[in-house]
Amino acid sequence: MRVFNLLASTYRGREDDCISELWYLLRELGDEKAEAWKAGVSGLVEVKTNLNPFEAARRLGAMAAERPWDLKYTLKLTPIEEVVPAELEEIAKAAQNLAERKISPQETFRVTVNKRATDLKTMEVVEAIASRINRKVDLKNPDWIVLVEIVGGEAGVSVIRQGDVVSMAKLLGR
Prior knowledge:
The protein has helices at about 15-30, 55-65, 90-100, 120-130, 170, and strands spanning about 5-10, 35-40, 45-50, 75-80, 80-85, 110-115, 135, 145-150, 155-160, 165. By secondary structure, it is an alpha+beta fold. It folds into 2 domains: about 5-80, 2-Layer Sandwich (Alpha-Beta Plaits); about 80-160, VC0802-like (2-Layer Sandwich), CATH 3.30.2130.30. The strands form 2 sheets. It has a 5-stranded antiparallel β-sheet. Helix 3 packs across helix 4 (about 120-130). The chain is globular and about 45 Å long.
């Protein structure tokens, strides 16, 4: 299992172009050791950056707003805080640990699961996570989103705010 901290969406068949684009742009942001590789699912690229993944996504989004011609292949950037095997218990533990650190007792959350190439059921993942987090659930307007990105045998887990996932299309009004 390779550890990554950004998940990038691209056009199917354009993963190599997205990898090159992100490699170049992350170096421009100061990360000389950034790595990116195909996620094993069409249209997805996993990225390991030494930058804070939330900051990297935000700065790449700002770069896209200023110079849209430089981000032709990167469609969306999702910060990932922890990568675990795509097993219910491992995902739930990682989500619980992150949530307990980031979500204060008076704040609300929801669980969002995006899954590809897995037999795990969305509701099983949601229930396993929600049952471990002793905070109020708000499905419509949560303070935090417990985000699980399952790609085959690995799962990226993050606790994010609305807007932490950077969509180039939304940013550029496409």
